[in-house]
Design brief:
about 10% strand, alpha/beta, two-stranded antiparallel ribbon, 2 domains, about 45% helix, about 425 residues, 8-stranded mixed β-sheet, 12 strands, 17 helices, Rossmann fold
Length: about 425
Amino acid sequence: MPMNGRPDAPGPLSRRGPRPLLLHLTLAMLRSSASIAVSPGWRSGWQRSSEQFTEAAARLAAALGRPGGPDEAAFRRAVQAEALQQDRALIAGIAAYRRHPFRRNLPDSPALWAEGETRLLDYGTGRRRGAPTVLFVPSLINRAYVLDLTEQSSMLRWLARAGIRPLLLDWGWPGKAERSFTLTDYVAGRLERAIEAAPRRLILAGYCMGGLLALAASLRRPDRIRALAVLAAPWDFHASGAETAILLGRMLPALEPVLAFSASLPVDLLQMLFAALDPFGISAKYRAFARLDPSSDRARLFVALEDWLNDGIPLAAPVARECLGGWYGANTPGRAEWRIAGLPVDPRDLRVPAFVAVPGRDRIVPPQSARPLADLIPAAVLHTPAAGHVGMVAGSGAETALWRPLRDWVLSL
């Protein structure tokens, strides 16, 4: 029973997200304030505005019962009421998320190998001999367990039941040693040693940022890698939203004091950079969550994914410099200038079968950024599910969007 003794009272707040909370509340406040502030000028811009705005204004006029258009005072009141309603829904959604009883309780699979903070987890123990082995390489800035989110939303456990031996490289929290790592240290060091600990001739599968690391490792170790799967991985960072990517690169000097102080890019700063890609996306999804039945499967999946998103990992300072300055700012992968241990990472040199998944509704890695890999890799199979970046691997439709197609491709090799 809650501490106040009322059985119907909401439970205590028990989560910190969405992170950073102040940023998302400030963005929502600015959006509402701007909408209210500009509403008196609706009449002067009505006819000159975009077609979408004109249609929205017409719908508002009909809703106000004035087919010819609302008067200025009525329009202003309607905008203010809508802004306040959206702000209330956002607060309700955040509170509902923070009070939700869901807690992830899946045990870790056994570790096949470990070094420092990094572990290679084996999800295929007890499977039949000769099952194809797939080593999954996640991003460096998110927890690896997105691929093993819940009992119902675990791609790795599903693939294990389908006759595949999945291995998961859990990078872990960067300690003192890892905070000095470069991308070369991660790829030519940790990842290659994990590959050595795995069965020979395995399939490498990289998700998001991990796709680039897996590609680099596959090019370096053709003796160990028999195929490569690249899942929602960016390549041409300037193919969509080049201005935003370049701006992220130009922010690097302003971040140097933080990088020097903590030898890493902290989680909340990383979250702020991602928020720049879709400033109002967090508010929209929390308003939608406020309308869900908290006991529904959809609500539990939302909470599981948000817990994962808010459970990020800091990025080692040298890697942050390479990614922001090199990948985003200079587009070194897209210009064939990205190097690992001094050698170029060129997808055209890959000589093994490849599976390239490019989700069509990806806002984190736009399809225009990910698709060039399918064009550059000689033996690539392109898969384009109607899904988002995270939904493709752990959403309610992930089995159809990715798990089955990936399973079929692996078993066909």
